[in-house]
Amino acid sequence: MHFPTIEDYVGHTPLVRLQRLPGNTTNTILCKLEGNNPAGSVKDRPALSMIQEAERRGMIKPGDTLIEATSGNTGIALAMAAAIKGYRMVLIMPDNMSQERRDAMTAYGAEIISVSREQGMEYARDLASQMQQQGQGIVLDQFANFDNPLAHYKGTGPEIWQQTEGRITHFVSSMGTTGTIMGTSRFLKEQNAAIQIVGLQPQEGSSIPGIRRWPEAYLPKIFEPQRVDQIVDVTQAEAEQTMRRLAREEGIFCGVSSGGAVAGALRLSQQLEHAVIVCIICDRGDRYLSTGVFNSQS
Predict the structure, then answer these.
(1) For the chain, which terminus, N or C, has the lower number of CB atoms within 10 Å?
(2) Is 257 in the active site?
């Protein structure tokens, strides 16, 4: 008898219907619960994909050192994937990321290099490539690695298509590396070109973990603008408030970027009828508890 290993349980996440937040509407809003992945986020998919595909090409082998700049979830997912596969993992991240995230990475055996909040992800990415040039390890580079969206083209997209029995009309996803929206969009549009793809970014001045407004020079190389039909700005307050409502009114305990995606889906729903809107719940809320973001009453 063949028993599965933990990597066999990456993906195949539930799709659930919101019951209260949408209000009185003819639309159906569905949430893909990516926090159900083994390391707790949607990033388990690309983390495993990038390592598996690099192995397949002979670029890396167990025992090698991998380096990645990350703001959180990818780092946790890569730390898990490296532990499964037998790699040394070095993660570079801004020092304003939540303690739970740092603790999860070190629990999986990863080493962390901190950069300041002011230096941010841009500097973390530059430092990763410097270290690679100095021969200190191999950068998988989630921002430019097409094995990132490939995970969603092969997994997330087909799962959503099957779970909605092809009835999906709109797909809403927060945009960070943009891997989720790129790969899922490509698959869904191949099935039905009329499906609308909506990307979420933070409004100017808002700080939402996991989603970004990238300066032009740092736009992820995997991002193809033609794959997104509409980009919606979401405020930090709106994302946080929706996140708290999801926990209190739907029993869905998730992070801030997921609150942003659902806020975008709810806004979209007000303009539509008889739509089937799918949004991505990127991760679980427990990795944000120390930030106090759940304590507000709004």
Answers:
(1) N
(2) yes
61 is catalytic: no
DSSP 142-195: TTT-THHHHHIIIIIHHHHHHHTTT---EEEEE-SS-HHHHHHHHHHHHH-TT-
Given 43, 85, 185, 258, the catalytic residue: 43
Tokens 């990132």 belong to 148
Residue among 245, 235, 249 at smallest CA distance from 294: 245
- Tokens 């997994």 locate to 155
| Rg of the chain in Å (alpha carbons) | 18
Tell me, rounded to whole angstroms, the distance of Cα 30 from its chain centroid.
17
Closest CA to 185 of 205, 165, 211, 157: 157
Q: Which two tokens stand for residue 110?
A: 């990863």
What pLDDT, in 10s, does the model give residues 185-201?
999 999 999 999 999 99
Q: In what order do the strands lie in the sheet with 88-94?
A: 111-115, 88-94, 65-69, 138-139
pLDDT digits (tens, 9 = 90+) for 200-258: 998 888 777 777 777 777 789 999 999 999 999 999 999 999 999 999 999 999 999 99
Task: State whether residue 28 is helix, strand or coil.
Answer: strand
pTM of the predicted structure, to 2 decimals: 0.94
